[in-house]
Structures are given as C-alpha cells and as structure tokens.
Design brief:
heterodimer, A: about 160 residues, alpha+beta, Aldehyde Oxidoreductase, domain 3, 5-stranded antiparallel sheet, 4 helices, 9 strands, about 35% strand, B: about 80 residues, Ubiquitin-like (UB roll), 5-stranded mixed sheet, about 30% strand
Chain lengths: ~160, ~80
Amino acid sequence: MVRIQEEKINVQEILDSVIVPEAGGVDVFIGTTRNHSQGKNVLALSYEAYVPMALELMRGIEKELHQRWNIHKVSIVHRIGDVPVTEASVVIAVSADHRAEAFAACRYAIDTLKKDVPIWKKEHFENGEIWAENAESKFAVNQSRIIKTSAEEKKNGLLD
Amino acid sequence: MKICVKFFASAREAVGESDVTVDLHENATANDVLDFFSSRFEAMKQIRPYVRVAVNQSYVLNEHVLNDGDEVAIIPPVSGG
C-alpha cells in the first residue's frame, strides 16, 4: 500500500496492512518530526508534495523492493501539511519470512524515499523558516551532473 | 509549443507561482525552461544549480527535449522522510 495523507498516521493500521500468515517478521520505520535542526529550535513543520509523482515513485519503490528481496508486503505512507513535533511524518512497514530481508528492504525504502520522492519539509523557527534539504537529495542532483559530464566526455571522445 | 511548468517549495517561492504555462520554441529542452525562469527571477537563478527537472512525473536530464503539452516540474532538493 502506498499513500499520502494529511491526517495523522495510524501506525497500527500500517502494520496491520503488511501482516500475512506467511511472514515471520515485520520491520517498521517511523520518521518523526523533531524539535531541533542545525542547532535551532523548530517550532513547527509542514510538508508539501508533488502528489502524483510522489505516489508514482513510492509505487516504484514498492515494486523494486519486491524485485530485490524476498518479502511479502510493503506499505509506505507519508503525511503532508502541518505535522506537529513528535508525530510521524512517514511510516514504512515491510513483512518477510525472515528479519534480514525485512530490515534491508525497509532501509532501502526510506533511503530511496529521502533521496528522490518529491516531498518537501519546511521548518519554522523562532525567527524565520527554511526548506530543509536531505543530504541524499543534494547528492542525487550532483550525481546526475556527473552522469551528464561523463556522457559529454564520452561524446567528445575523452572516455572509452 | 505550450509547456505547463509546476514549481514546488523553494522554487515556487522563487517565482511566486505554482503553475505557469510558457510558450517555447520547438525542440526546447528542460534546460531552456530553467533558462527562461532563471533570467526572469533572481531567486530562481540562485537555486538553479540545485534543482532537478521532471517531465510528466519522471526525472530527466537537462538536455531532455520537450513536447507540446508536457508537464514540467522544477524539483528543488527534496526533504521527505
């Protein structure tokens, strides 16, 4: 199951959605909003998404998880709008026969989501606000530039 | 040709709108869209090195050639999770 919602995430519901009799374990990642960022107090957080593309990429992650690991079910739910400090902004649950695959797949899902899925968090401080930027995402921008550079160099005969 | 451009987060604040339709020449690329807005909005020029472009909801390289009616999105570094 893949979903973007404004309502508070019910973690138990996401857990229940991946439980099947064949599964021997479920790994759950819960991303919660914290009250500090770069040494400053965060008063409030709000998320926005490019919803259709975000859902498409989240479905892509779900599919990729099934291709790469022997798992049963995956649920990825992200919340948008205002998310009070301490509440869950994202919940990912993966069920598998054995824990190693559930852990690995769940970790891959959150890492990929943070890198690519078009969702943004605005952090509101006492004196100002900023759009947060995931380190993985900035790396991805640089990486696409590196791919481009190699393609150009290849075209110019600089690389084999 | 008509291209619908969507802006999110810092990019939306840079241009002051979330949806803009622009008229571009045939064979215009994602890069041309970035040029168009960077030359008009200083804040867009500032963040340009850090944005990715999506066309019809898939990431593309800046050389990607656009077609009439494409939906282009300017994606600043994401911060989901």
